[in-house]
Write a structure and sequence with these properties.
The chain has helices spanning about 5-20, 25-30, 30-35, 40-55, 55-65, 75-90, 95-125, 135-160, 160-165, 170-175, 180-200, 205-220, 225-240, 245-250, 255-260, 270-280, 290-370, 375-440, 450-465, 470-495. By secondary structure, it is mostly helical.
């Protein structure tokens, strides 16, 4: 390989690292011209190694996963990229370390991405309305879908071990589970080609059962002879490739044989007879129980197909919801970002206008200073200084007073609470004082009869116990009586409270 080819490959790699994602396909398609210029097989292998070393093969592998609806060239460009990827892989001879990574990691990833591209093309085909004006678009989409499957078959022909990866891919079953006639026939032919190339040796029984369920569903639910013939051929290919399939057919679909009678004389009698022979291979005689299970086969296949379609519908609905949520979140973030930018621009504009106003004021003062006479300049400057000092003091005092507002508000709340408490206590004390006075003035007085009787008793006691007291002694006893009487009244009031 000359230096010109190396330079071209490096230029393509440099473009890939700088171009946006929508322009990458057209840049990578230029590798096709470089491969076509290599005349000999050995030169092509060297070119493929150089493309691998530059990382362009890996970029091709990742690029076929994307949506090509809005890319230049559309889905035709996707098919060209898939063919270019297959051509870059076929016959690639790498070193031991790179070869292990290539065989174990890269090739399965290529298969998965190609099947994903087929899934996208199938969805694109199903989205096109089945009207006469869209006939050419549907034909192009079906042609692209078939071309990518042919590229995958061509890749499996060179690497036999990839057949198991293809058949175990969950997206292949999604391609098969469709009610569309054209794409289902293409997928069944693709499965038959892969099985004939690599067999079913390393395929799990669960995956085989999934294929058989869908194929039997197509045999029992459709009335189209082309779909029936393709499904029959595919089941025969699976049975010929692995003996487990024959056992699964007889164990899983016991009543299938009577249902296949409706396909007689439909144009594929040899294939139908082969399938019937597989169904009777493990049973010596057909019992009446198979007739009872004939209806169960239809129910099972219909139910399994319904459940699988329901699961796919839920998955697609969840994916659509996730995409919608992501787009809404992205749009909201963009709006928020735009609003923040507008706010910052407005703030910058306000700052600029404020600076301009200050600059104009300064220029105005300078102009006044310039036109003042020399004798009045000092007086003018002193006035300006006094005004500035007054302004600063007013701002500073206002700031200090505003800082005290919180503490004053708290003090006012405390004072108000104290006043309320004091008012309540004073009212309570006033009520108690009024009650005490009322009780004191309502002390029970003696009646006139009782008063006369007490005076007579006192005179009688004095006559019987004459005591000679001095004036001072009498005054002392009178004061003691008043003291004791007052204490008695106070004790009575305290007991009442």
């Amino acid at each position: 390989m000359n230096s010109t080819v190396q330079k071209k490959i490096r230029e393509v790699a440099k473009q890939v690292s700088t171009l946006p994602a929508c322009e990458l396909p057209q840049a990578l398609l230029s590798l096709q011209d470089i491969l076509n210029d290599a005349s000999m097989r050995s030169e092509q292998n060297i070119v493929k190694k150089e493309i691998w070393s530059a990382g362009l093969t890996q970029v091709l592998c990742q690029l076929v996963r994307q949506d090509f609806t809005h890319c230049p060239g559309g889905w035709q460009c996707a098919v060209s990229l898939a063919a270019l990827l297959c051509e870059c892989i076929l016959g690639l001879d790498l070193l031991l370390a790179d070869s292990q990574t290539f065989q174990k990691t890269f090739l399965p990833l290529v298969i998965e991405n190609l099947i994903l591209l087929c899934k996208n093309l199938q969805e694109k085909y199903l989205q096109i309305p089945d009207f006469e004006q869209y006939k050419s678009s549907r034909q192009d989409a079906l042609k692209f879908f078939t071309a990518v499957l042919d590229v995958t078959v061509h890749l499996v022909m060179s690497y036999k071990t990839l057949g198991g990866k293809v058949l175990m891919s969950p997206r292949l079953l999604q391609l098969l589970i469709t009610d569309d006639k054209e794409t289902s026939i293409v997928v069944m032919n693709f499965i038959r080609s892969i099985v004939e190339l690599s067999g079913l040796l390393h395929i799990a029984e669960n995956d085989i059962c999934c294929f058989l369920d869908e194929l039997v569903y197509k045999l029992t639910s459709t009335s189209d002879a082309i779909i029936g013939r393709s499904a029959t051929k595919t089941v025969n290919a699976l049975a010929e490739a692995e003996s487990r399939v024959v056992h699964l057919l007889n164990r899983r679909f016991i009543g299938l044989k009577p249902l296949l009678k409706r396909w007689q004389f439909k144009g594929f009698q040899p294939e139908l007879q082969k399938l019937l022979s597989f169904l009777t291979a493990e049973s010596a005689a057909v019992t009446e129980e198979q007739e009872y299970h004939a209806a169960a086969v239809v129910i099972q296949s219909t139910f399994r197909g319904y459940k699988t379609r329901q699961m796919l519908h839920r998955a697609e609905k969840a994916l659509s919801s996730l995409q919608r949520k992501y787009r809404e979140t992205k749009a909201a973030n963009m709006q928020k970002k735009l609003a923040d930018q507008q706010q910052r621009a407005l703030q910058e504009q306000l700052v600029a206008s404020r600076q301009l106003a200050l600059r104009n004021v300064r220029n105005k003062h300078l102009h006044y200073i310039g036109i003042l006479p020399a004798g009045a300049l000092d007086k003018y400057l002193e006035g300006r200084e006094f005004e500035a000092a007054t302004k600063i003091q007013s701002v500073w005092r206002g700031r200090q007073e505003r800082k005290k507002l919180d503490s004053r508000y708290k003090d006012a709340k405390v004072v108000k609470a104290v006043i309320i408490i004091q008012q309540a206590v004073r009212k309570w004390l006033a009520r108690k004082r009024t009650e005490r006075m009322r009780r004191l003035f309502l002390w029970p007085h003696l009646s006139d009869e009782k008063h006369v009787q007490l005076q007579a008793d006192i005179l009688r006691w004095r006559e019987q116990h004459p005591v000679y007291l001095s004036q001072l002694r009498f005054l002392f006893i009178y004061k003691m009586f008043l003291h004791l009487y007052t204490r008695l009244i106070i004790l009575n009031l305290m007991n009442d409270t």
